[in-house]
Amino acid sequence: HFVSCDLLGRIISLCWHPSGTLIAAGMMDMIKIFDAESGRATHRLLVERGVGASKSREVVVWSIAFLSDHTIISGDSAGKVQVWDGLTGTLVRTHLVTKWDVLALSSSQDESSVVAGTSEGTVVQFQFLSSNVGQQDKEWVRTRTFKNHSHDVRGLAQTDTAVVSGGMDTQLVVRPLLDKVEKNTQESALRKIAFPHRSLVCCAKKTGLLLFQFPDHLELWRLGESNGHGSPGDSLPVKRKPEKLIQLKRKVCTNVVYLNRSAITL
């Protein structure tokens, strides 16, 4: 059992070191590294706050990646991706990637690439590269920015050839890394899988009502009427046009994520 007496504050994110002996915990304004056997904190890394008015607000460390060489990479609510030396507890480099939040991180299997998902819907890739050709020294460099989402990117994974991302817009996006695949193949194609697979249109057959679910509002329509009856494919004269009865807009910055079918069976 892992019990620590050093936890004074909320834990927002966790990541194990690949050895299984250390845990990095993202908290408010800091990251703590714990020895898994003793439960004691070995390092405390203080995370810088934002600039201007945001400097007075606590920084939330939303995500952490803990690499084999004891490098720690963090994403926070001040829009920063920071690289830390986990052995000494020192900050190596800061990348400001967004004005909002960095919500998710994922490293590749060989730990040469890390991707960060933001609340702007972007995915930013960092790679461990030499700054100059021929040099042995490497550093974490921002290399690509992908914009395939309209809302928060909450989940990320890297395969050998692609970045997979998902979030609040209910889309699962498979973004190929073209330097890892041959061009003009199925692997090089951008793929979007839309969720949910359930219908976003509900019908109340008896009353002739349709309810449409959009990401930020709902629309209730009454179906039009025609004179007479016909067979499928026939064109009938319209007696009454379709009518929009209600449009309900959200009041806060959230999405319409679920709708019960019984909502319009009135």
Automatic annotation (TrEMBL):
Spell out the molecular function terms from Gene Ontology. Answer: RNA binding
Q: Which GO terms describe its cellular component?
A: 90S preribosome; small-subunit processome; t-UTP complex
User: Can you tell which superkingdom this protein's organism belongs to?
Assistant: Eukaryota
Gene Ontology biological process terms, A to Z: maturation of SSU-rRNA from tricistronic rRNA transcript (SSU-rRNA, 5.8S rRNA, LSU-rRNA)
Classification via Gene3D superfamilies:
YVTN repeat-like/Quinoprotein amine dehydrogenase
Q: Which Pfam families match?
A: WD40
User: Could you identify this protein by its name?
Assistant: Cirhin-like
Q: Source taxonomy lineage?
A: Eukaryota, Metazoa, Chordata, Craniata, Vertebrata
